[in-house]
Amino acid sequence: MNVIDHVRDMAAAGLHSNVRILSSLLLTMSNNNPELFSPAQKYQLLVYHADAIFHDKEYRNAACKYSMALQQKKVLSKTSKVRSSTGGAASNIQAQSLPSEIEVKYKIAECYTILKLDKDAIAVLDGIPSRQRTPKINMMLANLYRKAGQERSAVTSYKEVLRQCPLALDAIIGLLSLSVKGAEVASMTMDVIQTIPNLDWLSVWIKAYAFIHAGDNQRAINTICSLEKKSLLRDNVDLLVSLADVYFRAGDTKNAILKFEQAQMLDPYLIKGMDVYGYLMAREGHLEDVEVLGGRLFNISDQHAEPWVISGCHSFYSKRYSRALYLGAKAIQLNSNSVQALLLKGAALRNMGRVQEAIIHFREAMRLAPSRLDCYEGLIDCYLASNGIREAMGMANNIYKTLGANAQTLTILATVCLEDPVTQEKAKTLLDKALAQRPDYTKAVVKKAELLSREQKYEEGIALLRNALANQSDCVLHRMLGDFLVAVNDYQEAMDQYSIALSLDPNDQKSLEGMQKMEKEESPTDATVELDGDDMEGSGEDGDLEGSDSEAAQWADQEQWFGMQ
User: Fold this and answer.
1) Rounded Cα gap, residues 482 and 453, in angstroms
2) Looking at domain 455-521, which CATH architecture does it have?
3) Whole-angstrom Cα distance, residue 418 to residue 407?
């Protein structure tokens, strides 16, 4: 047993710090005396040394050392050819025991991916012949291709993963997200479903995710619910998170929060999906709970985007936009594919008056999640904020035509129509259609109430809001009902409605202002009430920052540090 064997055994035992020190010393000896180790032994030393550096998270250094190992492998290949011509059975055995060159290339690509050098990673993996690519290489390539917008190449790589590993469910999700038909994907798993017992649920699972990525939220909900009810899959955390996310996409906040809470109770260390949960809780005004949630997730891991997004949502709804901007930037740095982080940063930029920068972030969110309507809503809000009604109308019409006439798309189109006096009647028709489909859809109720307020139809507005509040309790709806009641001189009940709104969201400034105004004015004049249903995806805030100038400068400096301007 020679010294290289000892290095190999320590590497296998996970003694990385020991491997790094010893391999460094041995490589220096080899450089000073090239005859000390054979080319094969030096190649091994370089790979083990690079592995130890990779373990220490020095990825640029590790990539360099892996590249040196590949150069040494070329030297080894030349000498092996010479030796094999002289009868090298021993040399063939030695070659088989050496670290895999393919694995070394994968490690280099992994370093580049972590360093966000995606083009370099693709170049390294593309250099591996197709027949020599392992499933993990194809999976990494597929993800890199998709991120780079090379959808056809991504589909090919995902399919190759499934050909080798037909139960690679993340590869299935990847294919479905790239608009590959569910039936085609299911056909690639049919053999394994038929030969392995208790996998009959898989075809239904594929159908559910096909509906999700097609934007058919209601059918996705029904399909996931049918899966979740099966005794063998009941209380599966991943299914519950997916169900919560689809409820959220469908605009059903109540059920979304309920399913997120259920998943969280089953797995207290759950991180996936908690950014959306935190956002919903912040939007509903439960800022103390959001703060607790963010702190708990930071204790689990600060290397995921989710806790940073949650803290950012807390700052956003506390109107500390500069801090929300920094936290969103940090989340994007950790995960550039985090849709919720992009939406958070876009919303903060919009409310700080940096509309053009916000548009860039909303567009990237749309690219990553083309079936999420909140991405489009954010972009439309930016267009409206910059008086781009034509662009907003074009986007709203495109969503309507692409995703069909459901309560959400009808409300989005109506929201844009409300901005133009010429299309007020069209807005009213669209909102009536939306409420006919979903009488409890809060955004449609809010927009219809705003329209009725403009027309001074207060009694009709009161009836609309009472009907909406019959089966739900929402801060904005209670506040708006209070505003309408003031308009008809029903001050006592208006005060009650403002109190309910503040109990749901103690930070709701508009409810507080309404209550204070009533206390100061014993006989308020009957005037048109200005109603506002702003939320994170809504028409935005006025952009005023709470907190000192020094705090804003501090967070702006940190944002620049993270390079996310």
Assistant:
1) 12
2) Alpha Horseshoe (1.25)
3) 16
Residue 436 CA to residue 432 CA, distance in Å, equals: 6
pTM: 0.81
Q: 160: closest CA among 191, 139, 174, 178?
A: 139
CA distance 157 to 143: 9
Q: How confident is the model at residue 559 (pLDDT cuts 50, 70, 90)?
A: very low
Contact 237, 260 (CB under 8 A): no
Through-space distance between the first and last CA atoms of the chain, rounded to whole angstroms: 56
Quick check: 117 and 144 in contact, CB under 8 A? no
Only one residue has tokens 């979903």, namely 438
CA gap 131, 153 in Å, rounded: 16
Write out pLDDT tens, residues 160-174: 999 999 999 999 999
- Torsion, CA 449, CA 450, CA 452, CA 458, rounded to 10: 70
CA distance 497 to 475: 9
Buried b (16+ CB within 10 A) or exposed e, 198-220: eeeebbebbbbbbbbbbbbbeeb
- Average pLDDT of the chain is 87
24/15 Cα distance (integer angstroms) = 14
Q: How far apart are CA 407 and CA 476, in angstroms?
A: 19
CA dihedral 300, 302, 303, 308 (to 10 degrees): 120
Say if CB 320 and CB 548 are below 8 A apart: no
Closest CA to 484 of 531, 522, 419: 531
Task: List the domain boundaries for the chain.
Answer: 455-521
Q: At what angle do helices 373-385 and 407-417 cross, to 10 degrees?
A: 0
Would you call 141 helix, strand, or coil by DSSP? Answer: helix
